[in-house]
Amino acid sequence: MEQLVDEIAALRRRLGDAVCIMGHHYQNDAVVAFCDVTGDSLELARRVPDIRARHIIFCGVHFMGESAALLASPQQSVHVPAPDADCEMARMAPAAQARAVLERLRALGRNVTPLAYVNTTLALKAVVGEFGGAVCTSANAPAMLRWALEQGDGVLFLPDRNLGRNTARRLGIPEEDQHTLALDDRGLAAGEEANPGLRRRLLLWPGCCPIHDAIPADAVSRARAAHPGCIVAAHPECAPALIDACDGNGSTSYLIKEAERLAAEATPPVFVVGTEINLVNRLAARFADRCRIVPLAPEALCPDMAKITLRHLRDTLTAVENGSAAPLRVDPALAAPARATLDRMLRACS
Known about the structure:
By secondary structure, this protein is an alpha/beta fold. The protein has 16 helices and 15 strands.
């Protein structure tokens, strides 16, 4: 590992300002140490247009690299060190299936605006863009859901049902105004068109983040028993029952700010954090001398984020230096409608 670190450091020195390395908070510490920019999905999307480096190396899962490629200038190249770093949630909303659902809803007389979590493929974003929709992140989901509700007579939130329900609760949208769709491979499942729930304001795609969804609700009560007086916060990709038992919930940026706030208290409580373990461990190390931070779910490791290693980063930098790097390619037919979803989000949240 030491040799890899030295090789990467030397490559960075030689490449200088020609390269900017971006990394999501869920990356491991060894990779994060070389990132020029770190953040959650919203922060990283906001930063891309201001980057002047010729090459952007994006340390995150594939859909994040696609978003960066959409927002980068034509003169820039975006490289994903591990192209096989996919996202299981993104795979739960195939573009063709989403198109079939939206077309059928329109045929049934619904003027539904699709709002896609940014954890989706380029092809899905393009479909959402064609139907006048936008994307959101966990940080701006409330603002974007408000925006989407103003566009028509309802919203299709996809693919994360947990984030959709938790965001709806924050906005005071009652459960009787929500409906989780029943789907098959072709679109709406048999009999779903006759379901009165299809007329509700908020329609939810039945997807989830397997990592956050797997954290059981009783993990909160067990944490409180182990750490009396603790504060518990979790990511809103967790199930609503778990979120209801927490003291707070929000994006990775929110969780970081909560750690900073609690660490500044004269007598900080134990802070129990429910999200991907790399971020929790990083917070625990950062505030070790001021506040005890423990994971709600030590097993919550994203296997796709973990695919990006120092070796991948070294190899990508080497390829950039010798001119053999293959940048991420965006299908021109999908670029404009997909870019529209990101632009709408950035405008609405400016």
